[in-house]
Amino acid sequence: MATVAMLGNFDWKQFKRRAFSTPANSAITIIVYAVLLWLVWTAINWALFNAVWSAEDVEQCSKEGACWSVIDARYRLILFGLYPFDEHWRSTLACLAIVGTIVLSCFPWTWTAKRLSVIWVVGFAAYYLLMEGGLLGLTQVTTDQWGGLALTLFLFSSVVLIGMPMGLGLALARRSEMPVLRTFASLVIDLIRSLPLLTTLFTAAVVMPILLPSWLEGDKIWRVIIAFGLFFACYQAEVLRGGFQAIPKGQFEAGKALGLTYWQILGRIVLPQVFRHALPATINNVVVTFKETAIVIIIGFFDILASANAAFGTPEWAPYYLEVLIFVALIYWVFLFGLGQYGEYLKRRMKVAER
Amino acid sequence: MDVAELKARAQRRKLIIQGLIIAVTALAVYGAIQSAKVNLSALGLTSGFGFLERSTGWSYSFSLIDRDISDSYARTLTIGFLNTLFVGALTIVLSTIIGFLIGTFRDSRNPALKTAATVYTQIFRNIPLILQGIFWYAIMIHLPGPRQAMSLSDGVFLSNRGLMVPVLNLPLVVALVLVLIMIAAVFLLRKARIGIFQSAIAWVGLLVLLLLVASGLYVPTGESVFSWPELKGLRFVGGLTISPELLVMIIAIVLYGSAYIAEVVRGGLAEVPKGLIEAGEALGLNQRAIWSRIKMPMALRTIIPPLGNQWIFIMKATTIGVAIGFSDLFYIVSTSITQSGQTLELIAILMGCFLLVNFSIAQFVNWLNDKLKLKAH
User: Fold this and answer.
1) Residue B196 covered by a domain
2) pLDDT per position as a tens digit, A162-179
3) Is the pLDDT confidence value at A232 over 80?
4) Over the stretch A64-77, which tens digit does the pLDDT of each residue have?
5) Which residue has the higher pLDDT, A316 or A224?
6) Do residues B238 and B229 make contact, with C-beta atoms less than 8 angstroms apart?
7) Do A295 and B128 touch (CB under 8 A)?
8) CB-CB neighbors (< 8 A) of B330 in chain A
9) CATH assignment of the domain containing B364
10) Between chain B's N and C termini, which has fewer beta carbons within 10 Å?
């Protein structure tokens, strides 16, 4: 919609003035557009016109075009990993539940603490029930068989779901009047933020079993999710700190003068405003988290990147590694670009509202 | 109940909560030590840093200094740390330069440059770094071998063994000194307040002069100043070979990092008040002068803090080396853990190194920020 409107309002006169103001400028304009057009043309030729689409036609694949046969043949492995073949419909529905949750929380009418938490808990529960099964006549599938896009979405949604309250807790602890609590929170936040995510996850996966007694060890995937959630929470705490700084101190005092308790002031006056102020930065944090989930391949999870590697891991499909990697990159790109554009739109909208 | 009583009660409650936090933390630490003892003795491991003296017995892809399979753990870890610092510094510098360029293009009036820069940032920012790394590495190892190497220009070859470039035929120390002198010359010439064209000529003149002197002193007689890569049999000799792993690290991190820095730069440029730019135009300044005298100096103050965060991010991003086989610190540490089993000590070393580096970067950024502050206020 926005793009269409922009095309309608396109200012040709301004375009001409800016693109062809001087001879040098005109030369730059023409050369850059020519190069861009050539790139787009080459890409389209390779990916569409000269491409082979179905798995049966794999013999027709050549250097000139993409061989999408590999996707046709292996897309289930890429999307669902080693999940039992007959149960793939469950994986599909589970992925849709998460995507639906993300899309729903983009609508402003869901933006109350209650609605958002209900949507996320329900979406996550639906995902978990569908994937794990064991209830309602669904056969049980344990987490070690989950994989591909489904596992990536699982990691992402559980990290956000665990990390949000943790982030709020850390942000509040950092603002606390109690020095011990404050120092503790700042230490955790600064430490986790200075370390690479990979180090934190690696610690959770490999070091924690040594430090924890065996009864507390739990599943590797949950240890990693909690560590990832902590990482998200530390960044989210910084985001919320910015939101807290935007609230005038007088509002706390006014609340106290009215005889409200600490939690009433927070829940009814301060937090709604904090979340509003911190919204664009929060979305940015969520986008970054989605992108960073790709790193779990290193600590041995069968996420979409690992299943992509497996998809061209057989001699038959090995020559078509590029097609598979581009396919996965496209999936990430669509998610991330969409969420990013939405964040930009919100930022603009809020700027207009503040004027 | 009077006010004093209520206050005292609140005070007591706070003390109890804080006491509980300390007690629980102490208990957790004690419990961790106890179970570490139990778990380590079950594995037959002794803790301590004695293993650093042992020799490793395994090899890895990249090192800046001499290495050997019988190196001690201490030396191997040092090499890993140096590699991380090297790749981090190199990619930070390159990403910053390219990021400023692309960010300026995004802010440009020319619609073509703007489009190209936007496409660049939107592509490279929205794909996970590790996927980009794996992508470039897959392309790299499928390139033709040295005998069918692609010749990019005179003396520059690209093959699945890496990028071969000509290099100065000088000892490493002399070459480093040369580079440092030439960097210092840039700053001195900028201070000298002569035109950009004259300073460029002076700089090139100095470079040629120094090269002649250095080659007279250090190049063995009968050899040329440059060493050119040449195909001899199945491999290249001479020149400098940039290994596939290093090359992929540089390409992937720089594309990703520069796209992020470009966004930071664009944001900074967009914050410059329009009135200032119009004032510059009214004074008859050309676009370049407006950019270098008004926009950039103003924008730098908003750019520097998030830029510092990006530098720290790039430093942390070097850990993707483990996915493409580049021997950065994380790669060396995780291999050491599998080989020696000294998990706790090695993780502590890894964390310590990253805290040190990132703390230093943060300090440097603070210093830079203070220096750039508007003095008049």
Assistant:
1) no
2) 999 999 999 999 888 888
3) yes
4) 777 787 777 777 78
5) A224
6) yes
7) yes
8) 196, 198-199, 202
9) 1.10.3720.10
10) C
| Pairing between β-strand B226-227 and β-strand B167-168 as defined by DSSP bridges | antiparallel
Pick the residue from chain A with its C-alpha nearest to B39: A210
Select the residue from B125, B131, B136, B248 to test the A interface by mutation, using most A Cβ atoms within 10 A: B131
d(CA A99, CA A335) in angstroms, rounded, equals 10
- The Cα A308–Cα A325 span in angstroms is 7
Beta-carbon count within 10 A of B115 CB: 16
- Interface probe for B, chosen from A6, A192, A202, A217 (most Cβ of B below 10 Å), is A202
The minimal CB distance from B354 to the residues A195, A309, A321 is found for A195
Q: Which residues of A touch B358 (CB under 8 A)?
A: 194
Between chain A and chain B, the number of residue pairs with CB atoms below 8 A apart is: 147
Domain that holds residue B308: 73-166+228-372
Task: Name the domain count of chain B.
Answer: 2
Rounded Cα distance between B336 and B340, Å, is: 6
What's domain A69-354's architecture? Orthogonal Bundle (1.10)
Residue type, position B159, single letter: S
Residues B233 and B341 both lie in one domain: yes
Q: What is the pLDDT of residue A2?
A: 46
What is d(CA A234, CA A166) in angstroms, rounded to the nearest whole number? 8
b/e string for A25-62 if b means 16 or more Cβ within 10 A?
A: beebbeebbeeeeeeeeeeeebeeeebbeebeebeebe
Q: At B231, which helix (H) or strand (E)?
A: strand B230-232
Question: Do residue B297 and residue B349 come from a single domain?
Answer: yes
* pLDDT digit string, tens, across residues B54-85: 888 788 888 877 787 778 888 889 999 999 99
B337 vs chain A: nearest CA distance in angstroms?
Answer: 10
